[in-house]
Amino acid sequence: MLTSRFNLWSRTQLLRKCSTISLSQQKHANIEIHDPLQAHALKEQCILVDEQDKPIGAATKADCHRVHPGTGDVKLHRAFSVFLFNSKGEMLVQRRSVHKITFPDTYTNACCSHPLYDIEQERQESNALGIRLAAQRRLNYELGIPTNQIEPDNFNYLTRIHYANTGDGVWGEHEIDYILFLQKDVTLKPNANEVSEVRYLKREEIDEAIAKFSAPLTPWFALILRHRLKQWWDNLHRLKQFEDLKNIQRF
């Protein structure tokens, strides 16, 4: 497990290495040009953290995802990624709506979002309860899954991953990402403003299926797929042995 600390230089290198556009090509982060619902969501307050995942304050979602035009930095904040499997062991993937501001029209895991500073319950640290409640809220909002089908204790919290990506050079990511697994048959009614497509993939067909996707993967999904996902997927019924709640993974 990789637990080394990043100094200022290594953080800058990480952000630059993940960039998909040079700083000289940057556009202005003009919120008004975006979909009204997505623009409104940028006002939500995320939880800022240090590199050890200790809360240090709050900032709007816009501020947390805006790439600094001079340094290329993105504010580090808390997030989560849910990987949802049905009773047959097939994994749900979604295609993010073209309306999304960060990484629109890309394929990703079932749900990726943030606990909100605005919601006191989602700031709870014990047993990652705040994260679990946020995941329940967003799965309901994005995929229309009834909340009684996704209770907080249904989630398997595996570990945390620190990653960064400067996206289009205007909107990017820099997150301590909590990894949650959930195996359950659920009712889906996707929110078209968030999700344009959902499908279930079989473990033995994952590489072939992704190769045929007509859109790219989100950077966090690609990272987790490359380093951990297949091993976790192969062990859905014994995930406890893969839990690492103490260390933050850095690939």
TrEMBL record:
Its cofactor is Mg(2+). Keywords: Cholesterol biosynthesis, Cholesterol metabolism, Hydrolase, Isomerase, Isoprene biosynthesis, Lipid biosynthesis, Lipid metabolism, Magnesium, Metal-binding, Steroid biosynthesis, Steroid metabolism, Sterol biosynthesis, Sterol metabolism. SUPFAM superfamilies: Nudix (SSF55811). Its EC number is 5.3.3.2. Pathway: Isoprenoid biosynthesis; dimethylallyl diphosphate biosynthesis; dimethylallyl diphosphate from isopentenyl diphosphate: step 1/1. It comes from the Eukaryota. One of its GO terms (molecular function) is isopentenyl-diphosphate delta-isomerase activity. It catalyses: isopentenyl diphosphate = dimethylallyl diphosphate. One of its GO terms (cellular component) is cytoplasm. It is an enzyme of class 5 (isomerase). Pfam families: NUDIX (PF00293). Residues 75-223 form the Nudix hydrolase domain. GO terms for biological process: cholesterol biosynthetic process; dimethylallyl diphosphate biosynthetic process; isopentenyl diphosphate biosynthetic process. Belongs to the IPP isomerase type 1 family. Catalyzes the 1,3-allylic rearrangement of the homoallylic substrate isopentenyl (IPP) to its highly electrophilic allylic isomer, dimethylallyl diphosphate (DMAPP). NCBIfam families: IPP_isom_1 (TIGR02150). This is isopentenyl-diphosphate Delta-isomerase. The lineage of its organism: Eukaryota, Metazoa, Ecdysozoa, Arthropoda, Hexapoda. The gene is Dmoj\GI21943.
